[in-house]
Specification:
The complex is a heterodimer.
Chain A: E1 4-6, E2 11-14, E3 19-25, E4 32-38, E5 45-50, E6 54-58, E7 61-66, E8 71-76, E9 85-92, E10 100-102, E11 106-111
Chain B: E1 4-6, E2 10-13, E3 19-25, E4 31-38, E5 42-51, E6 54-57, E7 64-70, E8 73-78, E9 87-94, E10 103-104, E11 108-112
Parallel strand pairs in B: 2-11
Antiparallel strand pairs in B: 1-3, 3-8, 4-5, 4-9, 5-6, 7-8, 9-10, 9-11
The chains are: A mainly beta, B mainly beta.
Chain lengths: 112, 113
């Protein structure tokens, strides 16, 4: 059974701090990794994708991938109240199709 | 911008009714997906399609069927709705390439009474 694990939270951080969200996955053959943000009552929207070991930065967001340890993380610098949402980690497993396995998400609350 | 639309935002049906949920994308994507999202269970794949008239079961296909007659349109059918199918249903689409991003529609909140 292929799994993607996230701490459900809530993760509470003060405004301006760094929020660190973590995700582990079970299949070493995984190739592609995605972070989605989902506001309450809305659909998921892509924040970042990462395919290679190391860090990938986009504005205030940094995705980190470590395939040997089978984890992927998302750092949000200078957290804002508008970042308060559920963050979903998604992993694409090997094969011809583009199916993703989603974690259950981590609820982030940024306190003003 | 990729646009994925779903036919209804909210839907209320009675047990035993046949329910159609429709999804349309405007980016000529090969892949289309239907998920349901429930608290504590996350997003679970019901069915996906990688080409017109082609479909594959996801993790929870029981009680559902799908139809893809045109590339831009993917329908989810509940043959006989039951209360345990009350959920948020999300459609997504992506290009065929490995690792390509899935883009989501706004979702349909279905309540079965």
């Amino acid at each position: 059974q292929k799994e993607v694990e996230q701490n459900s939270g809530p993760l509470s951080v003060p405004e301006g701090a760094i929020a660190s969200l973590n995700c582990t996955y079970s299949d070493r053959g995984s190739q592609s990794f995605f972070w989605y943000r989902q506001y309450s009552g809305k659909s998921p929207e892509l924040i970042m994708s990462i395919y290679s070991n190391g860090d990938k930065e986009d504005g205030r967001f940094t995705a980190q991938l470590n395939k040997a340890s089978q984890y992927v993380s998302l750092l949000i610098r200078d957290s804002q109240p508008s970042d308060s949402a559920t963050y979903l980690c998604a992993v694409r497993y090997g094969g011809a199709t583009n199916k993703l396995i989603f974690g259950t998400g981590t609820l982030l609350a940024v306190q003003p | 911008d990729v646009k994925v639309t779903q036919s209804s935002r909210y839907l209320v049906k009675r047990t035993g009714e046949k329910v159609f949920l429709e999804c349309v994308q405007d980016m000529d994507h090969e892949n289309m997906f239907w998920y349901r999202q429930d608290p504590g269970l996350g997003l679970r794949l019901i069915y996906f399609s990688y080409d017109v008239k082609m479909k594959e079961k996801g993790d929870i296909p029981e009680g559902y069927s799908v139809s893809r007659e045109k590339k831009e349109r993917f329908s989810l059918i509940l043959e006989s709705a039951s209360t345990n199918q009350t959920s948020m249903y999300l459609c997504a689409s992506s290009r065929a390439g490995a690792g390509d991003t899935q883009y989501f529609g706004p979702g349909t909140r279905l309540t079965v009474l």
